[in-house]
Design a protein that fits this description.
2 domains, binds D-serine, 16 helices, about 425 residues
């Protein structure tokens, strides 16, 4: 009989599983060699990676600190208490739940806590920049709840609060949701709060995209305006992949019960540890300058693209992202995504509001600056990248020139390494 396979073995990943090991090595190279401009991605620190890859993954800790369903949870309690304490201080919140596995889980837990199936919700239309989990018909939020949506103004492509107000008064939703995934402007949370109060709705903000900007005080904090705030920890915030929920004390028990045992079982303690590390990093001196640079870079990128004749939705940005309407450049979002990938620039195709084309081959691309800024890039590099994008699209049939653009992208990547 073969010997028992023990985990005390010191075998490296490369020896145990060369296929996975090589996929990770290749992915590391991809992240290093490409100008990654996916607005919802970022690069975590080595400290976050270390916590995330730690032996806390071995521990079951169903329940909450001090009230677990398993023995041996004292270290898990310490980790979760540190995470919660830091998150509350950072976002000035009365209560936080750091157990949601993702932004989607966080949103589902809020719905489970506050709504009954069939209740009316009003969120931003996915095709106008909203989130899938805010009532899209293809998502559980649009199947279990009676979902209505508001969009942006056709002329300005900005949220028009008067239209939201009118809809809210007509629909009388139980929950109004603000927050977006491809909306480049600041959202008026206080304005939404007034509409919710007028119509007797609860008010939730999903700050998944802007949590880092908010933690640094670069954007207004929705925790002061909303009943409930959900977020992811991996986008601008720059922590591990995961979700979290903030609320006032009155909703704390309902939210906690909805997360566990309502929706999830055991929390991912290694991820919660990594969230705690990211909360600590968000209080370090360089974090505010980092988030300011993220938005400064996005503004410079926007200006430079406009200078090259690109149409930007809303004419610019207040955030970490820009949304480009490619129709005047005679190329679709999908074609642009593929072309840019060939020259080592990673973006995502994106629908634009009132898009005449479908989601699989939409008219726009979304560009974000968090990852580039985490590598140390600044406005000069944004101008260079805008020029590369412009040249790639304009001279897409010139293979020699595309090679040259790729070389210039690679040279920028070399100057700004991902992990030293
Ligand atoms: N899928 C996410 C994004 O890329 O924006 C939304 O949460």
């Amino acid at each position: 009989m073969d010997k028992v396979l023990l985990t005390t073995s010191k075998e490296s990943l490369q020896n145990v599983d060369p296929e996975i090991s090589s996929a990770i090595t290749d992915e590391q190279k991809r992240q290093q060699d490409n100008l990654v401009m996916i607005a919802s991605e970022n690069l975590v620190s080595k400290a976050v990676l270390e916590a995330q890859g730690s032996i806390l993954t071995n521990k079951y800790a169903e329940g909450y600190a001090g009230a677990r369903y398993y023995g041996g949870c004292s270290c898990a309690d310490r980790v979760e208490e540190l995470a919660c304490g830091r998150a509350k201080e950072l976002f000035k919140a009365e209560h936080v739940n750091v157990q949601p596995h993702s932004g989607t889980s966080a949103n589902m837990a809020v719905y489970l806590a506050l709504l009954k199936p069939g209740d009316r919700i009003l969120g931003m239309d996915l095709s106008h920049g909203g989130h899938l989990t805010h009532g899209s018909k293809v998502n559980i939020s649009g199947k279990y709840y009676h979902a209505f949506s508001y969009g942006v103004d056709q002329k300005t492509c900005m949220i028009n609060l008067e239209e939201v107000r009118e809809k809210a008064h007509q629909i009388k939703p139980k929950l109004i949701i603000a927050g977006a995934s491809s909306y480049p402007r600041c959202i008026d949370y206080e304005g939404f709060k007034d509409i919710a109060r007028e119509t007797g709705a609860l008010f939730m903000v999903d700050m998944a995209h802007t949590a880092g900007l908010i933690a640094a005080g670069v954007h207004p904090n929705p925790v002061f305006s909303a009943d409930i705030v959900t977020a992811t920890t991996h986008k601008t915030f720059r922590g591990p992949r995961g979700g979290m929920i903030f609320c006032r004390k009155e909703f704390a028990s309902a939210i906690d019960k909805a997360v566990f045992p309502g929706l999830q079982g055991g929390p991912l303690m290694h991820i919660i540890a990594a969230k705690a590390v990211a909360f600590k990093e968000a209080q370090l001196p360089g974090y505010i300058p980092y988030q300011k640079m993220v938005t400064a870079n996005a503004s410079v990128l926007a200006e430079a693209l406009i200078g090259h004749g690109f149409d930007l939705l809303t004419g610019g940005t207040d955030t970490h992202l820009v949304l480009v309407d490619l129709r005047s450049k005679n190329i679709s979002g999908k074609e642009a995504e593929t072309l840019l990938e060939e020259v080592n620039i990673t973006v995502n195709k994106n629908v634009i509001p009132f898009d005449p084309k479908g989601a699989n081959d939409p008219s726009g691309i979304r560009l974000g600056t968090p990852t580039l800024t985490s590598r140390g890039m600044e406005p000069d590099q944004m101008r260079e990248i805008a020029a590369l994008i412009n040249e790639a699209l304009a001279r897409r049939h010139d293979q020699e020139h595309l090679k040259n653009i790729k070389q210039r992208a690679c040279s920028l990547c070399l100057q700004y390494p991902v992990y030293q």
